[in-house]
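Hi R.,

Here's the input for the zinc ion complex you asked about:
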Amino acid sequence: MPTVLPFFPESHPDETFLSRVSRYHLLSGNPTKAATDQELFGKRVILDFVVPAQALSSLVARLPGEPELVMQSLVQENTLLPAFSPFLGTEATPARQEIQLGQHYSGLGRLPQRVVGMHGESRLCVECLREDVSKRGIGYWHRGHQIPGVQACWRHHRPLLQGCPVCRRPFARPQHLLSMPWSNCPCGWQPTTHATTTKANELDVRYAEFSARLLEANLPPLKPGQLIRAYRQKIAAHGLVRKSSVSWTAVLDALKLEFGGEFLSSTDPAYRAGQLRSWLRLSLLEGQIELPLTRHVILALYLFGDFDAFKASVLAQTDEPLEKLRVSKKDTVQEESDPKLQSMRNKVRHLQAQWPTISLDDLWKRSYATADWLYQHDRSWLLQALQVQTEQAPDTDGYLEQDAGFVETINARLDGLYETQGKPNRVTKERLRGLLPKSIPIAQMKVRYPRASELIDTLKESYWHFILRRVMFGIGEARRLQAAPANTAIRKLSGVHSVAFDAVLDHFNWEPEQMVLPSFDAKSELVRLGVNRQWLGPTNQSHNHGGRRYKNKAVEDRGKAA
Ligand SMILES: [Zn+2]
Ligand SMILES: [Zn+2]
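And here is the predicted structure with zinc ion in place:
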């Protein structure tokens, strides 16, 4: 059992753990960090910026008080974990009221880099510093300034400094304690007397304010379903949906329009590096949402405007697991069952956390063995993780060539799908994929065969074109069977619902009695009217809304437009 320390500096409001340890170091008069480490932790430690978990548990054993409570207050008051915590929940997270004091942070040893993102600088607001010195007698480092993406002081609306403005020396160095603001920069610059008139960018201030509120709110880990439901509701309210599902392209465009590329680039390293393919991704990995804090904040800022609205919305969501969530299950299972795969992928993730713009070329140079192993055993993950466009990847698997072949096959066999005998079936994506010479899992389709996949998306038959083909089939059958009355016969034989049937006839001004006559040629009629296989129908709405009143209004509107 380690002996209790004679003293450890009291925390100032919102002070970082590194700041408290650095102050201890100064007060103790220890000549080296190693000596301070020995006293506080009993060994050398690396002070991880977000949650120095290892250091905390060693220190707790040397502080007076109930260890659980001491740990709780250190984590809550001196680390950044409360800002990350809400985004680290899994579906297995207990409901909010069931979380006991202290258990809240039970997972603090395993903070995934993909949620934490990049960190490692120490940022300073000189106005906060001056205020702290005059109010509390000493300056210190504020947690609120260190949250990833924060570039301004939300209190003073000033840009934060990351280093000396004169000699550019950074405030923080890996494996070192902080010496400023308690002493001047070796070049002579004095942080406490530094005056600035530069105003921070308004967006930076909003981001910083949201982040600071998030940190102090100390929310519990939320279930991914709660967050995703809250996001989706707002996305839908903003109209950023395509056919009732979220259009991430539209969301990204809206973010660019609202915030501008400059702000997004300076806040999020992956955006700056142009890694936009899965920039906004609400899929799960190891049960957690795969999105770094910066993007949660950017998305929430846009959707909810401020922290209070965000908090109210997520806490109002039900705890029910989300059914239709895209879960990278295959990934997780494969990774869990293969420790080698896991460690190789982790190496890449670790490098990405330090170096978000790392490319495949860089990986080869930096860690040849990792690149080599993953390239042989886990190529699609590697290429996706490094955002390598499949088109640029060497085509050793022949996917590129196959993709081109598939495009030809689909184009050549497409008409055949419309020429089958009997009652027409809708030409769905599934039927289009069925034209390919081999069956391909949907998950691979887009990644390996992007051109064929895109072609299938554009070629799938619209609901209304399918209805027209059914009506034409009904006409043919009614003629063949000489069934009467014409209206009922065509409808029944076509198998089309009466609402859709009436809508089509109304739209084209077709009379059932004339339709059964040999003079009526629906096919050339459609060509004349310019109706194609992706025709959106009498209204631009889905068939669910095809009521008569609605339909008539749409037809009138078309009349006016014409
Ligand atoms: Zn400030
Ligand atoms: Zn300097």
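One thing worth noting: Residues 222-316 form one domain.

Cheers,
M.
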